[in-house]
C-alpha cells in the first residue's frame, strides 16, 4: 500500500497513484528527486501544491549541489519545501553507499554529486542522483539524466556491481552512457522515459550504440 516515486516528469502523479491505490489511502514511502530540471522536479512541485493534504508523504530524498543552467537551478527547492512539505515528512540528503530500508523494500544510493569531487559540475545533468530500488526481490537502477562524465564515474566506481533486473535508460535515451555501462547493468527490462516520436528519432541515430546495446540485452 506504499509507493516509491522517482522524479515524475510533468506527469499527473496523483491520478496514477490513486488508480494504483485502488481505494486505499495513498502513502508515499519516499519521493526521490534526481536533479533540479523541471522535467524531473515539476511533478513534485505541482503534486504538493494541490495534493499535500490528500496523501501521506513520509520521506523526500534529494542531494543538490549549487548549480544552474538554462533549464533549471538547485536554488528553488529549499523555499518550496519550507512552504509545502509538512513537518511530519523527513527531508533527507542521501550519500553514496547508503541503503534506506522500507519494510521488505529498499533504496540504495549509488551515486550523488559528491562523487564528482574535486571536478566541478558544469552541467546540472551531471548532478543526477542515481539510485537502485529493490521491491519484491526485483532491482531497478534509476539513472536519471546521467550521461558522459557521470556514467563514466558510475562505471569506474561500481562495474559489475551495477547488475540489475531493470534499468531506466539514462537521459531519455539521448546520450545514455556507454555500451560497456549497459553490458555491466545487463538488465533484461529497460524503462525508456520518452515520448514515442523522440524514441524513434533517437533509436534511428547512428551514434546511439549504447542505446541499441541496452535494448538488445532487454
Secondary structure layout:
Elements: E1 2-6, H1 13-21, E2 27-32, H2 38-51, E3 56-57, E4 59-61, E5 68-69, E6 72-73, H3 77-84, E7 90-92, E8 99-102, E9 105-111, E10 130-135, E11 138-142, H4 149-158, E12 166-168, H5 179-185, E13 189-191, H6 196-204, H7 209-217
Parallel strand pairs: 1-2, 2-3, 2-4, 4-7, 11-12, 12-13
Antiparallel strand pairs: 5-6, 8-9, 9-10, 10-11
Task: Write structural notes for this entry.
This protein is an alpha/beta fold and 218 residues long. The protein has seven helices and 13 strands. The strands form three sheets. A six-stranded mixed sheet has the order 8-9-10-11-12-13, covered by helices on one side. Strands 1, 2, 3, 4 and 7 form a five-stranded parallel sheet that branches. Strand 8 and strand 9 (105-111) form a beta hairpin. The protein is globular and about 45 Å long. It starts with a strand and ends with a helix.
Amino acid at each position: 500500500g506504499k509507493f516509491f516515486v522517482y522524479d515524475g516528469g510533468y506527469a499527473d502523479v496523483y491520478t496514477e497513484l490513486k488508480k494504483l491505490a485502488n481505494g486505499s489511502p495513498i502513502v508515499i514511502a519516499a519521493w526521490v528527486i534526481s536533479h533540479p530540471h523541471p522535467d524531473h522536479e515539476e511533478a513534485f512541485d505541482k503534486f504538493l501544491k494541490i495534493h499535500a493534504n490528500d496523501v501521506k508523504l513520509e520521506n523526500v530524498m534529494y542531494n543538490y549541489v549549487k548549480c544552474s543552467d538554462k533549464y533549471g537551478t538547485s536554488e528553488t527547492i529549499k523555499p518550496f519545501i519550507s512552504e509545502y512539505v509538512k513537518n511530519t515528512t523527513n527531508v533527507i540528503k542521501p550519500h553514496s553507499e547508503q541503503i534506506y530500508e522500507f519494510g521488505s523494500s529498499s533504496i540504495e544510493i549509488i551515486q550523488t554529486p559528491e562523487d564528482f569531487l574535486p571536478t566541478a559540475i558544469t552541467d546540472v545533468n551531471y548532478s543526477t542522483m542515481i539510485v537502485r530500488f529493490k521491491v519484491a526481490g526485483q532491482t531497478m537502477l534509476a539513472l536519471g539524466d546521467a550521461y558522459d562524465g557521470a556514467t563514466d564515474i558510475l562505471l569506474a566506481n561500481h562495474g559489475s556491481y551495477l547488475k540489475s533486473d531493470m534499468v531506466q535508460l539514462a537521459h531519455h535515451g539521448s546520450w545514455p552512457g556507454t555500451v560497456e555501462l549497459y553490458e555491466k547493468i545487463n538488465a533484461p527490462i529497460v524503462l525508456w522515459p520518452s515520448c514515442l516520436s523522440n524514441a524513434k528519432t533517437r533509436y534511428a541515430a547512428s551514434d546511439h550504440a549504447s542505446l541499441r546495446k541496452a535494448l538488445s540485452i532487454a
